[in-house]
Amino acid sequence: MAIRLQVYQNTLEITCGEPVIEGGIRANEVVFTFSPGDETWDGMARVAVFETRVDKRAVLLEDGRSCTIPWEVLEDGSAGSYLRIGLYGTEEDPDGVIVRSTIWADNPYRVLPGPDADPGKDPTPDQYQQMLGFTSKVVSRLDGLDSVEANVKASEQRVAASESAASASASAAKNSASAAQTSATAATSAKTGAEKAQSEAEKAKTAAAVSAHNAQVWAEGGTLQDADGGNDPAGPRDGAKQLAEKAEDAKELAAQAAASAAGAQANAARAAQEASTRSNQAQQSASAADSSRAAAETAAGNAKTSETAAEESATAAESAKDAAVTAKNGAEDARTAIENMQVSANTLPAGTEATVTKTVEDGTVKLNFGLPQGADGGAIAADGLWGVRVDENGDLILTYVGDEVPPLSINEDGDLIYTLDGNEVNLGHVVGAPGADGATGPEGPPGQAATIEIAETETVEPGTPAAMVELPESTPQARRYKAQVPQGIQGPAGLGVPPISGPEDAGKVPTVNGDGTGYVLEAVSGGEREWTMLGETDCSVVSGNIIYDGLDNYTEFLIKAETVKNDSSSQSGYSLYINEEAIAQFPVSIRNSSLATEYFQWAAARFNGLVWEITATPGATLETNLAMADPKTPYNFVLDVGAASKFELRAPLPQYQAVSGKITVWGR
């Protein structure tokens, strides 16, 4: 649960009250709700003010809307008083510091008494210390944004490493391509060697065929051929030995050609295999190079994005840090300005409105308050205050003021129970466990069942002392007495009944006059007095308080309001005060300017001998509509106000005061 308040411009209203216990520390939250569309409090540092009879404290709303009640206003002695809550805000202006405040709002419950639980409480800091502490937290958090620059540098280093890896992959791809080119060259050379070997084999084959031909021709005596197929100039002059040598040479040449061809074929195969492997490696290296290049380009793009984001973050952080420092400096300036503020006050006549004037000289703010002198006070009734304590014998002692015993009881569990408005509050365990049985005392003498009886009474002469005379038949077990009571002294002659003037004295009763020397005839409860019109107020001329003073103990008033309106968009009203005591809030309404219809309202106030009772019509468009609505009272009836010597309709804040209409007041 929390105490909730509604804020609109300079008005403050409690929408949800809550009981507050004396001695509470950070136990009660207070939440302020600012009306939608109301920009009055935008940009202001908001400060809540709490007051009881023991202290007055201010608390900064760090989140702009809530805080807890400072413990200083709930210390010993606050029980029985009302908790008052206010709000003000401050902001910088070219002419100095602007201070805006609301009216007071009273928590509807008095502070309840409670045990003193003091856990070493620290003083609540003032609003300037709270504001500086809050600003330091913001600057400290902004300093943590310096790590963004280190993260950006790490990202740049990773991008550089990616670019280096991509460059190495490209170099490896280039080397692989060069190796593949070398393999291709080797393959070409192997092909050329194979073609040459094939040519030599063809030549060897031709030479063998020629040798065979020459051998046959020689055997037949014909003409020989040379190795190219032409006629040998030597003719058939060579013998078989020569032919055999040539044939052997051709055979050897053919074998060499065949070996060369086989080697060339093997070289060609190896070169082709190596070329294929190098080609695959080159393709893989090229693919890896493309991937590395793409990765490098992506990393470079990410690095650029990170760099841009880092620059923006750094700029934003620097701006925020500068704003926080500016706010801190502003708070320091505001604190200095308020600490150096000069305040003066003048006493105004009782009943006038309080005033305040602000001037700025050489940067120093000066406030001059006009404070009206208070009306003569009377004794304050303290009935209802109570307290409990434990005496030196361990007994629980209750003390209270007034004739009414506080609603306290002890339940079967030994707990002290306080009943408030039908709700039970457990104040703790007060009855201890039963003690051990004491030692048995000595036996006393036999008891006597004696009786005492006033058997007779006797009236004796005035001035004779009263006495109790024991009768002869009295015994130790049955005492009988005669009470002798003196007759009272003859009193003085009465004042007599006042003379009756005529029919106009019908219904009147005698009452003692002011000096106590006689009687006068007066009407009972004012009911027979004639109504007197106290006055008419034209609200277009007078828009403030309506006051009638010096009244002769009036007990009834009748109020008529005719088309009373203000210049605001909100409805307001007059509050009724009798003898400077608040009796009812807004029994007379002030309609807002948007209502175009005629509007009439009646209100009646009557003193029943104990409290003032207030009723009012809800308002109508017909002047003759006198139907009364529910009673209009504050949170409680106000006792000890008495018959009226002063009647007052207090106006609201200036922006809500009436500017048109008429108010007529009768009394008796």
Folded structure, characterized:
This protein has 668 residues and is α+β, with helices and mostly antiparallel strands. 29% of the residues lie in helices and 32% in strands. Helix 1 runs antiparallel to helix 3 and helix 2 (147-220) runs antiparallel to helix 3 (240-339). The two termini are 47 Å apart. The model is unreliable at 233-237 (pLDDT under 50).
Please specify the SSE layout and strand pairing.
Layout: E1 2-8, E2 11-16, E3 29-34, E4 45-51, E5 56-60, E6 66-68, E7 82-93, E8 96-101, E9 105-110, H1 127-143, H2 147-220, H3 240-339, E10 342-348, E11 355-361, E12 364-372, E13 386-390, E14 396-400, E15 408-410, E16 415-420, E17 423-429, E18 451-460, E19 467-470, E20 478-486, E21 508-512, E22 519-523, E23 532-538, E24 546-554, E25 556-566, E26 572-578, E27 581-590, E28 600-607, E29 612-616, E30 644-650, E31 658-667
Helix pairs in contact: 1-3, 2-3
Query: So what's the oligomer here?
Result: single chain
Q: Cα-atom Rg, whole angstroms?
A: 59 Å
Structural class label: alpha+beta
Main sheet summary: 5 strands, antiparallel
Question: What is the rounded distance between the termini?
Answer: 47 Å
Low-pLDDT residue spans: 233-237
Strand content is 25-35%
- List the total number of helices: 3
Please give the number of β-strands: 31
Tell me the helix content.
25-40%
Shape: elongated
* Average predicted confidence as pLDDT: 76
